[in-house]
Amino acid sequence: MFQRLSKSLGDLFHTREDRAIDAYLASSSDLADLEHRMRIVEHRDRIDSLPFCGAIKPRDDALRF
């Protein structure tokens, strides 16, 4: 019962993008390649988490520290 519930929840939350990332990481040729690919995915995730951050311009009258 728990196994079936766990699989159902996993399928619900495991998106197509997650599967693509898993396949990308699984296709690495060695440990160094895997670590490099993990850094690429991690960096991309950080950029995607704050898409608007670089678009904000500082105000001219804002205090500067």
Q: Can you offer a commentary on this structure?
A:
- With 65 residues, the chain is mostly helical.
- 65% of the residues lie in helices and 0% in strands.
- It is built from 3 helices and no strands.
- The radius of gyration is 19 Å and the shape is elongated.
- The termini are far apart.
Tag the structure with descriptive keywords.
65 residues; mainly alpha; 3 helices; elongated
How many H/I helical runs?
3
Order of helices and strands: HHH
What integer value in Å does the Rg equal?
Answer: 19 Å
Helix content: 55-70%
**How many strands, which pairing sense, and closed or not: the largest β-sheet?**
none
Q: Which percent band covers the strand fraction? A: under 5%
- Overall shape: it is elongated
- The average pLDDT value, as a whole number, equals 76
How far apart lie the N and C ends?
Answer: 59 Å
Q: Count the strands?
A: 0
- Look at the helices and sheets and give the structural class: mainly alpha
Helix/strand layout:
Layout: H1 2-13, H2 16-26, H3 31-49
Helix pairs in contact: 2-3
Compact summary:
By secondary structure, the protein is an all-alpha fold.
